[in-house]
Every structure is written in C-alpha cells, then in structure tokens.
Amino acid sequence: MKIIFATQNKGKAKEVKAIFANSPFKIISLYGLGNEIEIEETGSTFQENSFIKAKAIFDIYKEPVIADDSGLEIEQLDGRPGVYSARYAGENCTFDDNNLKVIEELKKFPEPHRAKFISYAVFYDGKNRIETIGELHGQIIKEPRGTNGFGYDPIFIPDGFDSTLAELSLEEKNKISHRAKSFQKLKEALARI
Ligand code: IMP
What pLDDT shows up at residue 40? Predict the structure, then answer.
C-alpha cells in the first residue's frame, strides 16, 4: 500500500521511511511529491495537530496518509516547549535558535533537567483512523553535542545513554525514539486492517 507521510521535515521523513522499510507499505513524503503545502497546526494538543495534518493531506490527495505531531516537554519549564516545539524561538526560527532558547531558560534551574519527547502518530484513509503514541525520556544538557538527527537532538540525552540523540546513528535512534515507538505500533496496527 502506498502511504503519504504528511511532513516537510526531512529528518522525520528519513526516520519514518527507515521504520517502514521491509514492510508492505511504501512511504512517500510530501517533498517527494514536490509539494510545498503549508499546514496550519491550529490544535492545542499533539493529538489534534497530528490529525489536522493527516486530514489536510488526505483531503488533497485522497490517498492513505500518516502524520505525526511531536515535541519536547521539559519538566522544569512546566512542559514547554510542548506543542510549540517547532517554533519555540519564534516563526521561521532554526533548530539552533530553539536549542539556545531552552538552554537559556534552564540556566536558573538545577540539574538534571528532566524531559521527554512525545510522538502522536496517526493513519487516516477517509474511513479508518488509527492513533498511537510513543515517548522517550531523558535529560537536557547545556552544551549541544552531535550533528545527526534534527531539532533538539543535540541537547537531549536519553536515559541509559551517555550520548545525545544527535551523536547516535539513525539506526540507533530508531531503536529507542518516541517516533520509532509510535510508528512501529502504527505499522503493526496497519497490518491488521
Ligand atoms: P512537528 O513537525 O509539528 O511535529 O514539530 C516537531 C518539533 O518537535 C520539531 O521541529 C522538533 O523541534 C521537535 N522534535 C520532535 N521530534 C524530535 C526528535 O526526534 N528530535 C528532536 N526534536 C524533535
């Protein structure tokens, strides 16, 4: 089955394509379709936003769609950046801008800075709507390390590791990440419909 992944984020697309490799599902990303669609994430939860993305793309292509809305929740910041993870330092900010803002805000708090990544994944084909969740717990560090991955990966050390997510390979991140967990569950659920 051909499935469109409703994302413009190349880092996410790479991860999810690897998760669905060797499966009956062929994942096509939006930029793979040459499409520059901007979807407004108007929801106030990951769950709402993941479905907004999936529905918006389904309404255009009328093909099965997967989407995820994900982000980082930091305990000492009362769960921020949360649903604003992508644009925490402002519209059109870079991943580095977001990391610096988080580091700055955490300066007044003692370590460890406990945090978790969350991924809400959804499949929608106009009839079936399947939702799954994945989490990854760890802590935020003050000095970014590593160049792999994307987003907050350089400042996040998963529990049980000494490396940041950006120091792990794609294969290693895909064994433990929030997105790997949510999409693995989605893949298993899809095999049953
Ligand atoms: P979304 O594309 O609206 O789901 O926004 C997700 C944002 O959360 C990204 O732009 C990153 O800032 C952050 N994020 C989500 N997953 C990850 C991850 O695996 N590593 C690092 N940052 C992530």
Answer: 85
Residues with CB under 6 A from ligand 1: 9, 41, 69-72, 85-86, 98, 117, 149-153, 165, 177, 179
Contacts of 178 (CB under 8 A, 6+ apart): 70, 116, 117, 118, 119, 134, 135, 136
* Global confidence as pTM: 0.95
Q: Which residue's CA is minimally distant from atom 3 of ligand 1?
A: 69
> Which domains does the chain show, CATH number per domain?
2-190 (3.90.950.10)
Q: Please identify every residue annotated as catalytic.
A: 69
Q: Is 179 left (phi over 0), alpha (psi -120 to 50) or beta?
A: alpha
Ligand 1 pocket test, candidate residues 8, 31, 72, most atoms within 8 A of CB: 72
Whether the Cβ atoms of residue 32 and residue 14 lie closer than 8 Å to each other? no
End-to-end Cα spacing for the chain: 12
The Å distance, Cα 104 to ligand 1 centre, comes to 19
In angstroms, what is the span from residue 151 Cα to ligand 1's centroid? 6
Q: How does pLDDT run across 172-191, given as a tens digit for each residue? A: 999 999 999 999 999 999 99
Q: How far is the CA of 171 from the centre of ligand 1 (A)?
A: 18
For residue 130, which of 73, 62, 184, 57 has the smallest C-alpha distance?
184
